[in-house]
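Input sequence (791 aa), recorded before submission:
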Amino acid sequence: MSNQSLIRKVKKVTFLVALFTCIHANAQKYSISGSVVDQNQEPLPNASIRITALNKGASSDFNGTFQFKIPKGTYLIEASYVGFKTEKKRIEVYNNQTINFVLVEGDTMLDEVLVSAVRVKADAPVTHSNLTKKEIEKRNLGQDIPILLNYLPSVTTSSDAGAGIGYTYLRVRGSDASRVNVTINGIPYNDSESQGTFWVNLGDFASSTESLQLQRGVGTSTNGSGAFGASLNILTDGISEEAGGEIANSFGSFGTRKHTVKFTTGKINDNFELAGRLSKIYSDGYVDRAFTDLKSYFLQGSYTDDTTLIKAIVFGGSEKTYQAWAGLTKEQLEEDRRQNPYTYDNETDNYWQDHFQLHWNEKLSENWNSMISLNYTRGKGYFEQYKTEEAASDYNDLINEDSDVIVQRWLDNHFYVINGTLTYDDKDNLEVISGVSYNTYDNDHYGEVIWGSDLSAGTSWGDRYYFSQSKKTDFSIFSKASYSISEKLKAYLDLQGRFVHYETAGLTSDRSPIDVNQNYNFFNPKIGVTYFIDGNHSLYASYARANREPNRSDFEGGNSQHESLDDFEIGWRFASDNFKVNTNVYYMDYQNQLILSGAIDPLTGEPLRTSSGNSYRLGLEIDADLKLAENLSMRPNIALSKNRNQDYYQKINGALINLGDTPIAFSPDIIFGNAFVYEPVENLQIGFLYKYVGKQYMSNLNSAISENDVLEDFFTSDLNLIYEIPLNKVFKSIVFTTTINNIFNKEYVDRGYYFTYDDTWSDPNFVTTLDGAGYYPQATINFLSGITLKF
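Predicted structure, token format:
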């Protein structure tokens, strides 16, 4: 072999080795690790660390540390945490590196103070889920907040009109809305008398929501009526550093449309901000003529400096909703599931509600913080109804016998609240939050005859045929402490005293006399511990006692005894870069639980309840967040439960029968949900969401009379697409959003009611128990699409 040939071969080998070395060097990945802490060097668990250029991210563990691998190159890496300003660092990666972030509290952290008294932190021994503004925006195209929460663990939702707009409902662990305590910036939102939550009065409120936390079970001490199924704490929009706004319009099936305009001045002179929103939502509804017409507004003015936050917030609006709460019979459902049997043009619910809030947070020292909140809510409205051939006695003889009549049933109320909290935090081991809350509610109930085909002599349109006046006061005092016993063990103690007075007198809408003057004094202790196994694993256990008073419908039904609940929770949490999981087992033991009977009030549509004596809910909940690839993740959750009345008695065919342990109404034994999120390219996100809800009973009879009380299990799926185009001129970005609901066109019913009655017409000496039922059909395949211009 010649020397030149040898030299050529050596050069080739050298080139191939160099090329392989280069490729190997470029393909090699290096470990990037570090920590995320606050200014006091306290770790920030579940902080987000992200490299946008690689579409790669990680989360910090309980110790605030993180680690991931990336190839050689120069990158911009950012760390973010709710309530803190995002920090960005540019790094050049050519070997393993450590990078640490110290995040500074932002204005959002000041906002978080508004709800700190009723929320819990990530490591608290309380079962909870959080949703941020970014997550809420993904599906915010006009549907109400309960529908946006549909994919959280143990949650079921429904709507009268079937399309998720108007009268919508939320149940958690089988508990209805009157057991889900809702606060807005720490102010109670549940109606004081019915204890229900009327989301129809909060049109497009998701557009003004910064974040929310759903606590399952008794949770922490909160303001307002006691939580027997869950607590939902809503924080409204935070303070913006920069001026901006957005114009959002969406359209969809059933004539649905939403129009929203938002603005913010940003910080003026580093202290002041003014922000607001105007919205209009309209939908014809899936059910025929079950339209909803919502108008709403939100306005806030803020002042901040190094130690002070003052917020004045005004929000509210009006709603007009056509009658759909009566549902359909089984025969009507089979004949035409979209039909509406009501034909009177103005069979509508009309209500106006305005909220005025003032919050003042003062940082007294490095360790002490105070908060005072004031609220006034003004509500007024009516339901109009047409009836034929009515009895004169039902209308105070304002009509003659068998006259047709149009009536309006009114509510006219005022709600005042004052909250005060004082927080001590030594920034090391101990945090104590103590507070008081006082609210008073005044409400007039009355009905007016506005037309009659045969009015009595001397009757004028607008004369009242019933009237009652109510007043309720609610005072509570609490103190909750969190103490780190050691690096691995943290204890939690929460004590609350609650004192309620309720009185009402007059006539109900069916002209039955009502006269109530009751006092209730409750002591609600809660205790728990969290054990940190290591930076990834933690265990928690808690016990909570809750008591609550009856609502107005319970008093009308003769129930005046309060309910009690012992809630036991045990959980395990795990968090790593690519996998998070929360698992918990709960046992909720009720004494004298007032449960839905399955029937509704024929005059008001209110669900009716009955005492079950003793009952319990035993369940397992698991929710996870799994990163399958750089651009693909899944978020499954499952809830398995057993919900039983113990030794349940019912009168059937004239005899009182012990039915034994029966299922609690509207409490499915299994709820499973999942969301696949795929990001094929930057700024494009595709989400596939699906949910399965097991069989439910609409009564507590376990089908002892007939199977008309059964709601069959159902499976639904939604497709969600979001694409954002960043811009540099005029608009900051344009966001396109589309949601296709129920993509497999499933016909399902997720809610209804069931009632029994005694038939003695055929034989007065023999009582036969018969039954009836109503069903609420939900929409088949439908879509919502929107475009948002951000500037």
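Checked by second reader. The longest strand covers residues 368-390.
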